Amino acid sequence: xxxxxxxxxxxxxxxxxxxxxxxxxxxxxxxxxxxxxxxxxxxxxxxxxxxxxxxxxxxxxxxxxxxxxxxxxxxxxxxxxxxxxxxxxxxxxxxxxxxxxxxxxxxxxxxxxxxxxxxxxxxxxxxxxxxxxxxxxxxxxxxxxxxxxxxxxxxxxxxxxxxxxxxxxxxxxxxxxxxxxxxxxxxxxxxxxxxxxxxxxxxxxxxxxxxxxxxxxxxxxxxxxxxxxxxxxxxxxxxxxxxxxxxxxxxxxxxxxxxxxxxxxxxxxxxxxxxxxxxxxxxxxxxxxxxxxxxxxxxxxxxxxxxxxxxxxxxxxxxxxxxxxxxxxxxxxxxxxxxxxxxxxxxxxxxxxxxxxxxxxxxxxxxxxxxxxxxxxxxxx
Amino acid sequence: xxxxxxxxxxxxxxxxxxxxxxxxxxxxxxxxxxxxxxxxxxxxxxxxxxxxxxxxxxxxxxxxxxxxxxxxxxxxxxxxxxxxxxxxxxxxxxxxxxxxxxxxxxxxxxxxxxxxxxxxxxxxxxxxxxxxxxxxxxxxxxxxxxxxxxxxxxxxxxxxxxxxxxxxxxxxxxxxxxxxxxxxxxxxxxxxxxxxxxxxxxxxxxxxxxxxxxxxxxxxxxxxxxxxxxxxxxxxxxxxxxxxxxxxxxxxxxxxxxxxxxxxxxxxxxxxxxxxxxxxxxxxxxxxx
Lengths: 381, 289
Fold this sequence. Notes:
The complex is a heterodimer of chains A (381) and B (289). Chain A is of the alpha+beta class. Chain A is built from 13 helices and 18 strands.
């Protein structure tokens, strides 16, 4: 789960990390009056869950009321990489001499959290990591002890941060790790930490993502969730509780288990088709879930044909067949051809139940995918 | 021969009184697994289908000589259940639970370096030695006894590949699902080295997927240390960057690490053929035998 910049900054400020004066605004008038109160220059920053907001035109610096009005009007309501902006953060501009990157994330290869500091702040840190990995100082953290104070200092000195601000930066890093641990973050970063002309350190941005699997013990954060979706289908999938990713092809895919669904996507591509989505109904799905999955895929206007591939372990073929029948019998005319392949637990029982007047049946995964790809090609002609 | 589990394995089920635990204990017993005990705090002294339940894993190990555990404990309590298993003399703990917080697993990971107990999972289907024992939720009836080892990050993909092998009459020594989470106990390298040491395993299938660098590490290991031939498969070739494909660990990062191309080329460089389809994986295995 992603927090907005303003939400993360509230949390950072409560923990003692210095942040610029700021106010949230949902209308142009609100933004202008916030700017007047804070004093110019102000940064007007889109509050949406996408990276690279600045480059995409979602952050602008206003030096007077006219500019504040113009930029707030530009940004509010704009489409930023598929997301509509309905809130902006109006923030005091910082007179800075230097920008740093400070963050904590999980190094999955090591199975340990890692604290990172770089003097190449203000730009995409993944690019820095790729092109100049030595520019990022890293300290792996033993989760049983936490980040030792000496490690925070070491990361800051190794990164080459100016001595005059080293203490302030290592204090920010220590606080970030504490928040990372206490709040079950998956990533937490400030990019950039600005060094002001007075030699102070200020968190000019804030990224904080929370481990979805830990939300059960972070009720305050769970309440802050402002889930926005790239499109209506992803929203619908969220409501149904499916793992769903929309793609740009025309072969709808439903299956059970992440690895097998990914494989089905890959096979659609391999046999010359284009996958329209990833949809995992999960383990042990009952008939209703199957019906919902078909509803999802039929709702996607890009879909020309569907492949339904189930290899039952804890999922039972008879339940799946029941769900497919229920979904398809409700139509006078089946909207899109559905190829079904059932294997594993209760597959035979499922095949007996399945209404084969409504679907096409194949015995192997390879055959089912090829048939669906052909169906999609015919339907799109 | 087989690896890690066989018909001598004595199993304790953590969470045996819960819905999942109870159901799969029945399935494991029906398959012939020797389930000797359950462990559930506060339920000591009860029985589940004639199996004695103890309050602690330690007690189950002492009283029933259990040497492996299977964990069906809800995510909020699962890390604690794993720690409990690791604090005994068990040889193996298999964590089926999906959705354990990643930072809990980082702490477990730290503990693993200090104990001799092996962890499999979490978020995995378990392990099966066909005809002898299964620990987990794999559907026993699709497996058959044979000479091919199988290790996979995904449950249902394992079933698919086994199906392709079975259609040609090729059986398995042991099949292992290592799980789809970012931090897991037994990884590809661990499983591959066990198969390499097993006399009866003549070939190994390794099913990886996008995300992380475990497959690349496995490729390096195969190149340097394995004589047993390995056939590979990588799921997620068509996955777009930045999108999590179901498994918490299955994501290609924005900077391009964890891609299918990188994994396939690493495996190819190590002499491992990577099938475009599960059927091709079975072709490659057949050519080794």
